[in-house]
Amino acid sequence: AATPMLMEVGTLQPGESRVLDTSSVARDPGLVRVILIAESQDGAHSTAEHSIKITAPKLALITNGPDFRYLNRKATYQLVLTNPGDAMATNVNLMVGLPEGLEFIDASSDGTYNPEKRTVSWVVGMFDAHQKREFSVTVLPKTEGEHLQRAVASADSNLLPNADKTTRVDGTD
After folding, report:
1. Tens of pLDDT along 15-73?
2. Span between the terminal Cα atoms of the chain, in Å
3. Three-class SS of residue 82?
4. Edge-to-edge strand list for the sheet holding 102-107
5. 121 and 59 in contact (C-beta within 8 Å)?
6. HEC string for 4-60
7. Banded model confidence at residue 1, pLDDT cuts 50, 70, 90
8. Partners of 46 in the beta sheet?
């Protein structure tokens, strides 16, 4: 239960009204019930209730792609970004890191490759509630072993989902 807030109104003449301002910060999405109670020193009182729906964005990220590849055979990975929340997410970005051994070939939807950092990134911007977008990155395996790709999305409100994908690369076919 919330802690009640007490506000002093002062004396009201018949027919007089006053506006009192207050503010609060919602911690979680959901339905919030606000109960206002006015009481006078002589025992007169009145109650009003109001419900407010608090909305919030969410981000979810899934990486799909092959678990196994032979050397020098292209592999394409899909990154599926969704907003299962009930509000728009803002300043949304997506990035995937490519390990040594996977050579960058291509990225969809204006993905930008940074060869020094070995990352592919997308600037998504605004992302509506219940929206879903798919991105892809194509690589060429150049060394054998287990290759981990780490994908992360970011947005305002400290939204930071991530998804990892490991592919085993073998040199014999």
Report:
1. 888 888 888 787 778 888 888 888 888 888 889 898 988 888 999 999 999 999 999 99
2. 65
3. strand
4. 60-64, 75-82, 132-141, 102-107
5. no
6. CCCCCCCCCCCCCCCCCCCCCCCCCCEEEEEEEEEECCCCCEEEEEEEEEECCCCCE
7. low
8. 38
Q: Are strands 30-39 and 45-54 parallel, antiparallel or unpaired?
A: antiparallel
Give bridge partners of residue 75 from the DSSP assignment. Answer: 139
Task: Assign 111 to helix, strand or coil.
Answer: coil
Task: State phi, psi for 119 to the nearest 5 degrees.
Answer: -125, 150
Closest CA to 163 of 134, 130, 129: 134
For residues 92 and 154, what is the distance between their CA atoms, to the nearest angstrom? 6
- For residue range 125-167, what is the model confidence (pLDDT) as tens digits? 999 999 999 999 999 999 999 999 999 999 998 899 999 999 9
- Residue 124: pLDDT over 70: yes
3-state secondary structure at position 3? coil
Q: Residue for token digits 């599926």?
A: 80
- Please state the rounded mean pLDDT for residues 111-121: 96
Tell me the pTM: 0.77
